[in-house]
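Dissemination and training. As part of the outreach component of the grant, students in the summer workshop were shown how a complex can be specified as a set of sequence lines and then modelled as a single object. The example used during the hands-on session is reproduced here so that future cohorts can follow it. Participants entered these lines:
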Amino acid sequence: MDLDFIKNELYTAVLSDVLDALGYPNQATRIPFTPCTGIGKLVGRCKTTLWADMFHKDVHPYELELKAVDSCQPGDVLIAAAQGSNRSGIFGELLATASRNRGCAGVIVHGAVRDIAKMAAMQFPVFATAKNPYDSQNRQRVIDLDVPVVIDGVTFNPGDIVMADEDGIVVIPQHVENEVLELAKQKVSAENRTRDAIKNGMKAEEAYLTFGVL
Amino acid sequence: MDLDFIKNELYTAVLSDVLDALGYPNQATRIPFTPCTGIGKLVGRCKTTLWADMFHKDVHPYELELKAVDSCQPGDVLIAAAQGSNRSGIFGELLATASRNRGCAGVIVHGAVRDIAKMAAMQFPVFATAKNPYDSQNRQRVIDLDVPVVIDGVTFNPGDIVMADEDGIVVIPQHVENEVLELAKQKVSAENRTRDAIKNGMKAEEAYLTFGVL
Amino acid sequence: MDLDFIKNELYTAVLSDVLDALGYPNQATRIPFTPCTGIGKLVGRCKTTLWADMFHKDVHPYELELKAVDSCQPGDVLIAAAQGSNRSGIFGELLATASRNRGCAGVIVHGAVRDIAKMAAMQFPVFATAKNPYDSQNRQRVIDLDVPVVIDGVTFNPGDIVMADEDGIVVIPQHVENEVLELAKQKVSAENRTRDAIKNGMKAEEAYLTFGVL
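and obtained this result:
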């Protein structure tokens, strides 16, 4: 299943339901991510960065941030795990331009971004938990890339498929990826049948007894 | 006064002002509800549900949720009092479809919803305090319906008129309903006179002394 | 440099970067202000008001609020420092109408506003941290005007240039105003060169080494 099909046909709620059924009930974030640039859906494979706050002059400013964006591959979603820090806007117009150039599909930031108006004009998908005008230099920096990171209790492994939409963010562990996607496709059909039956006047209770999904 | 007139001519701020004047200074919520589906105004009579978090397998999944949506009456606003829990998305596309079928005008959720993109496509009014992709099954459930519920210190009684708009949510106790609506209609006129006088150059201080409203 | 030029050519991130470089690293707010009326940018000179919660009947309702709006000058941005209180909607349609009449460019409220739909219809710029339907009378009042106020650790002095946009809010101390604006204009050019080089395929690391800005 290619990333475009997944983006167009599936959504986080159905992925979460299938992961529940397979015994993975903790694959979605609950903290509110805002689609800052007005684009409400993003799918790709995790390219992870781990960030830390800092309080001294950085002798190598932006060192690993630049490596991260310059090493993006087509279809990557850049994950910035900054523990929700609001110390600076760690992702902005120039990193967005550089990562898009390498084929990056968008960015998920557990922390703050800046240059929102410019990234919106670029139509670059950005999901973040905060915003402020401060430069990251001497305030925050990447301390590791391409490592597992945890956001709101959910593990994002490099290469995992991640989807962000209006409801939230879901990560699919790679060893169940094919199974999850196939079952999600089937569940979408079952939900459509249920919805159509209800639309045609069936009561919700009867629809649930009949189709077994809600 | 019918619900359409109230929705088109009145707003939460003027209802709150009249309730203040009548000695009911605690009829509006202060916590931020988001109009998730892009529809900024909702008026109707409260159809209440009380929710609880759960941590075991539910032997009767969705039991009272289904009863609640299937027993909605035209003009009802479904109130989901879930104490702001972000454990799951307790209201989504199928419950929205079912409740709309019974004439429900929209839903107010003190807690999380999911399927936001689909409910926006349905143009179904949804005011909620959170969002996430998780199914409510085995996570949260309705434990009572058609009972008084309290959200942010405000009591929502079954049958009370409730209004949600960009400013917040106001509930009108039934025993003062007619008086509140009549006085609100009068106050709207007084506010319009004040605003027009200011627009025409009167200073705000003089306008307040002249018309007595702000 | 006039206010229109500043608004059209500059933005909070570049002002913050220049203030960093000049040794003023604490001129931007980090708490999230919402552009409630859909207008994402506001520039002007601070007209400050300091608010306090109250719990008794006000013998002079709205006294200093009215003085504040009636004494606005063209290009002023009204600053309402209410310590983030959500006790009432302290700024609404009538104060917006009155302050606009005096040439006020918009309002920044560290606290709640109301009449959001009406102020959006007026196209009046409003940045606020909360919203609710309650009247301020007997709940909050202005206790000082035209005094320095502090919001989220940032000092807003009367007459300082303030800018609010999608990223946040930045205040420029008056004694460095000309220097900041001139340097910001230069930095915008350097950023544009960097962005264009990256767009044309230069890696981010090389671009940073070449142009020295990010």
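The two ends of chain A are 25 Å apart (CA to CA). Students were then asked to discuss how this feature might be tested experimentally.
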